[in-house]
Amino acid sequence: MNAANITNKDMAELMIYDRRMAKAGLRLGLRPHPVDYWLVHDEQIVQVLPSAGVPGDYHYWNKGKAAERHRQGHVPGHIYEMVINTNPSICYLSNTNTIPMQLNVMAHAVWGHVDFFANNVLFQDTQPATVLARFKLGRNKLKELVESPEWGWDRVEYFMDAIHAIENYCGWLPDLAGTLTEKEVRANLKEEAVELSGRLLVEGEVSSNVRQQLLDRINVIETQLKRYPVIPTDDLLGFLMDPDNTPGLPDEMHTMLSIVRDRARYFQPQVRTKIMNEGWASYWQRELLLQPEVDLPLEYRLELAAGWTMHDRVPSAWYLDPYALGLSVWRYIDRKYGWDESVATVKVSSIKHDKNGVPYETVRQKSVTAVVRNRDKMLEVRRNYDDNRFLTEFLNEELFEYINEQALDWLRRTFRIVNRTLKKHGWDESLILNTLPLSLTGMIRMVEVWMHVRSTAEYHHAEFGTPMFPVSAETLREMGTILQLVAAFDADRHAARKQLVLRTGYHFVPNIKLMDTGKFGDNTWTLVHEWDDNFGPLMQSDCRETLKYFWRLRGTSSPVRLLTRELKTDTRGQEYGDPLPYEYCTQDGDTVKERWL
Amino acid sequence: MTKSPFGKSAKFQTGNNDLGVGNRFVTRVDMDESTLAFLRNIMQPPQAGGDRTEISRNRYRERRKAKSRKAIGDIIADVPVITKPGTIKIQVAPDREPTWHPGRDAQGDAGRQRGRKASNEPGDYIEVSYEEFVDLFLDYLELPNMLKKRFASTTLPTEKVRGVTRTGVRQRLNKVKTAAARLKRAVVKQNINAGQSGLVPGAMPSVIEVPFENVDLRYNRIAPKPAPCSNAVVALILDRSGSMSGNPLVIAKAYFLLCVLFLKTRYRQVEILMISHDTREYLWKTEEEFFKIGGGGGTVAACAWDLLLRIVENGAVCKQTGVRSGPYPSNAWNRYMFQASDGQLFDGAESIARHWSKIIQAPFNHAGYLEVGNSFSSGRYENGFEAAGQVLSSLPPAILAHTAIGRAESLNEVPEAFRQILRTEGAQDHY
Q1: Residues of A in contact with B37 (CB under 8 A)
Q2: SS (HEC) of A212-257
Q3: What is the mean pLDDT of chain B?
Q4: Which of A525, A519, A544, A552 is nearest to A594 (CA)?
Q5: Inter-chain contact A41–B46, Cβ cutoff 8 Å?
Q6: C-alpha closest to that of A86 among A58, A113, A59
Q7: Cβ neighbour number for residue A245 with a 10 Å cutoff
Q8: A74 contacts chain B (CB < 8 A)
Q9: Residues on chain B touching A73 (C-beta within 8 angstroms)
Q10: % of chain A surpassing 90 pLDDT
Q11: Is pLDDT of B14 > 50?
């Protein structure tokens, strides 16, 4: 592959604009980490995809699986940029981007994503300054194990596969200050029990009712004290990697657990703020490049305008695409809470070229006025929110209606275009509308008719060579999707909004907690799955496999059970009724027994 | 805070700190422009790229190769492995990574299969080289070590320089040895005729004083090998009647593959003739056509044997397919035949015996017969063979010495049937 199709002149130009963006960005209140730009070939960027871009991530077969898929033809499209939450941040730029596109992705990545990484509260515990070193350390440790005679790939994978299965259970970021330790909670409970038994002697004599209440509470405390951990934990990896909890495990296993946990926790905030983060970057890529300090030439702006609509090409993206949805929400916040505060003067120098054609900035600067907009609310939201709260709070009816209106606008335009096309090609009068339908049902019916005619026309075209329906299936499908989304919102606005919120972050991860390890009982480990009506029961086969995996990670051969809920099935395999308590249990890590409780 | 280079921007002056930010975030408010320029000015040009994913991918391939051993039977059935050495796609369902997640198992058959079935989609197959495939194949058959060694060592005859001669062609002139010969002669001359020759004793005589003569010339000697010519033609004769479809065909294919692989270790060039027969004979060009089951009823092998004889002696065209082949005269070619059939041939015993003897006497180095068991086998004799096998096993000893007869009812029995070939071939020493 050629060295680069970005020349030194281009590089100089990019750096000039980078500096201008820095001026504008700092004025606007953005505070990213410093950045290393890495200009890379497209193939190199695909190669780091399996490890989410972090150089020095450990080698493992699941990354090989993704890489092999990419090599065998599942090419993930052109990736303009990728940015990593490190300090200084690493920003990969594809060297096939044009200059305006390069500026666009620089603004997007640095003044959007990196600023978000540096300032959002979820990222405060990811320690971006040491990430690369930590990852490299983990990789070397794992490599050492693979190469050592008593471990080797097979034994490492025996454990690592199991650890990866519960990767999502690594505790929630950020760590809460002042969380009590196991010992403290235990002491508190004991104290309370002593106090209660004291009260029992005095107050219990007065009223049998109070006596019963006190006895119940004491009972509860006693059962809780019999459990270990005393507070159920969903940080399974964190619990297992503590040698106090799993004395039977070899040290290498504790290391492996900590490597995976650290990695999972590092990536967790990015998953939990996907929509916010992409929206934030999409907002600033446009806003920043249009600031007077940056002073882009007109031809660049024209090309950029095409780039800025990249995620708007189909209107269903306004609901489902994290970029477009995020952008809508941020724009809504800006409209609602921002205002033009004052006017400031900024200085801009012009760009000239020396005799070799290398651009430089002139010393003389002209003064330009810039409108200062108050974006305090946006900055506050960017600091404190995650996707869940972001959408719950701001994707309200007002915004939803706004998006719906725009989508319906698109729909009406498309209706008119389709009508015109049908008329032009002389299709049957019954397929052409003289007036647009006023109701959603009318529109839905018309789109259905068109879809039907399209499929029959396709068949006739293949059989008899009659003309095809002049509207593409994609367009009709898109119209159908929009109509469905709008109709769903009209039917039940809360449910429609909830559907979108549930798509974010870790909502899909079932809430499973380690309830007891049987330390003060029969040595049975108990996991409890909290039933969620939105997602339903766990997938049975994967549930068994994962439970077997979990069995390997404790350093003892005592049984593990998972308490969940299942649906009864009738003789024809149909599920019915309410979910009932159900238990998966493995004694030997090899077979799983199941029963209704 | 140092003096800001950006003028009096209200936004810039207040910065983030109004928003209740602690110190734990990196703020850049107090950065002067030179620091800023320094931090921002890092743009690394593209590095020469290695493959970062290599270790992970190799490990993944290893894992899947181990899995794909089970699928060898399917591969032999689906892929033309005998004539087309190249990369082979092996479909293996991707390794699963189970976690706890909401969902329902697929109902019915799909549910029992546990996971997705492999397809030709990206990520659902691995590509192995032909050598890797052969390794997997031999592994799968669980050949005994002796046999494995035989496959590993290629004993092709080679031509090597062995010493020098005084006569030969110019191209093989050995200059070093020739120069040495002249010197030897010159020194002798110097010593013998010390007085008359005018040569100075003890000094090295120059080329002008003692010129090269014909007796000095030395030529490299190329060792004449006792090995026969390194060409072999192997005729694969396949019964294409309906009763062969399914498992028997896979067994036949594995048998042919093993035989061809074995011959390829001994001969530089191996020509493959693919003839299938029902009541008529067909000579095929491609392996896909060869392994297609025909529609015709009845099975007669005599026509195929006739065609084979005509091809190897004079060259012939197959009437049914129009494919021409041959001739393969016995002085230039080692000739082999391998036949796979379910043994239910309609030729009479006499016809079978006569044709088989004719072929061995043609001469063919070796002829192998594999009877493929199937569920229809009914008229089997005491020694376990069908009609054809029964006839062949009672041939005269001179013919039997060049014949191997085996029977296989599953893939695992193929090596056992194949091993018979070593009885005749293993004893022969070409060198």
Answers
A1: 19
A2: HHHHHHHHHHHHHHHCCCCCCECCHHHHHCCCCCCCCCCHHHHHHH
A3: 75
A4: A544
A5: yes
A6: A113
A7: 19
A8: yes
A9: 122
A10: 51
A11: no
Mean pLDDT, all residues of chain A: 90
Tell me if B61 and A23 make a contact (CB, 8 A cut-off). Answer: no
- How high is the pLDDT of residue B431? 27
Smallest CA–CA distance from A367 into chain B, residue: B7
Distance CA B404, CA B262 (A): 15
A538 and B42 within 8 Å at the Cβ level: the answer is: no
Q: B63: which residues sit within 8 A by CB, 6+ positions away?
A: A61, B95
Place of tokens 């239910």: B344
Which of B45, B59, B98 is opposite residue A153, by nearest beta carbon?
A: B59
Spatial distance between the Cα atoms of B217 and B167, rounded to a whole number of angstroms? 8
Q: Is the dihedral angle over the CA atoms A429, A430, A435, A436 positive or is it negative?
A: negative
What is the token pair recorded at B374?
């199937």
Burial class (CB in 10 A: 0-12, 13-18, 19+), B313: middle
Q: Give the closest of B41, B97, B122 to A164, CB-based.
A: B97
Q: Which among A67, A87, A88 has the least Cβ separation from residue B56? A: A67
Q: Which residues of A touch B32 (CB under 8 A)?
A: none
Which of B61-70, B90-99, B223-232 has the weakest average pLDDT? B223-232
User: How many CB pairs (< 8 A) connect A and B?
Assistant: 211
Is A392 a residue whose pLDDT tops 50?
yes
pLDDT tens-digit readout, A149-181: 999 999 999 999 999 999 999 988 888 878 888
**DSSP codes of every residue in B137-157:** HHHHHT--HHHHHHHH-----
Mutation test of the interface with chain A: which of B100, B107, B120, choosing the one with the most A Cβ atoms within 10 A?
B100
A510/B101 touch (CB, cutoff 8 Å), yes or no:
yes
Q: Does the pTM of the predicted model rise above 0.80?
A: no
CB contact under 8 A, B59 and A573: no
CA dihedral A327, A333, A487, A317 (to 10 degrees): 0
Express the helix, strand and coil content of chain A in percent, nearest 5 each.
55, 15, 30
R_g of chain A computed on alpha carbons: 30
What type of residue sits at position A258? S
Burial class (CB in 10 A: 0-12, 13-18, 19+), A424: exposed
Residue from A534, A539, A532, A589 nearest A560 by CA? A589
Is residue A174 reached through a cis peptide bond, with omega within 30 degrees of 0 on the bond before it?
yes
- Per the CB < 8 A criterion, the answer to whether A124 and B25 are in contact is yes
What residue has token string 């201008």? A20
Whole-angstrom distance, CA of residue B332 vs CA of residue B381: 40
pLDDT given at position A311: 87
Of the CA atoms within 13 Å of residue B248, those in its CB half-sphere come to 24
Position B10 pLDDT exceeds 60: no
Strands of B43-44's sheet, edge to edge? A81-84, A89-94, A35-40, B43-44
Contact B41/A539, CB-based, under 8 Å?
Answer: no
Q: Please state, in angstroms and rounded to a whole number, the distance separating the CA atoms of residues B403 and B357.
A: 10
Q: For residue A297, with 0-12 CB atoms within 10 Å meaning exposed, 13-18 middle and 19 or more buried, which class applies? A: exposed
Query: pLDDT tens digit string along A231-267?
Result: 999 999 999 999 999 999 999 999 999 999 999 999 9
CB atoms within 10 A of CB A420: 11
Closest chain A C-alpha to B32 CA, distance in angstroms: 11
Confidence of residue B195 (pLDDT cuts 50, 70, 90): low
Q: How confident is the model at residue A595 (pLDDT cuts 50, 70, 90)?
A: very high
* CA-closest candidate to residue B370, choices B330, B397, B410: B410
> Whole-angstrom Cα distance, residue A321 to residue A313?
11
User: Which helix (H) or strand (E) covers residue A526, if one does?
Assistant: strand A525-529
* CA distance readout (Å), A75 to A84, A266, A570: 21, 26, 44
ipTM of the complex: 0.86
